[in-house]
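Section 3.1: Structural characterization of target chains.
Under the original work plan, the team committed to producing a structural model for every single-chain target entering the pipeline before any wet-lab resources were allocated. The record below documents one such target. The sequence was received from the expression subgroup and is listed exactly as submitted; it comprises 92 residues.
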Amino acid sequence: MAKHIIHISELEAESNFAALLARVRAGIEIVIEHDEQPVAVVHAPTPLRRSISECIALLPEDSSATIDADFAKDVEAAIESHREPLDSSAWE
């Protein structure tokens, strides 16, 4: 999917910052320019990602979760069974 990028002037950004943020929430990247030179880029933050070891550290002490020889296959099967795009609007 192509990334949507809009270039606007500082004045445009200042005049309606709420609309600018609404576009960012919709997935659009905004490049704010002064005399056609970029001075800032506004985009949504990248999602937080944790390593497996960080996830395991978050488990309660009494958890029975284990990583066995088939763990990688289980994770791969779970990913393959849910390849549809996520609708992030439901999270807001």
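The two ends are 22 Å apart (CA to CA).
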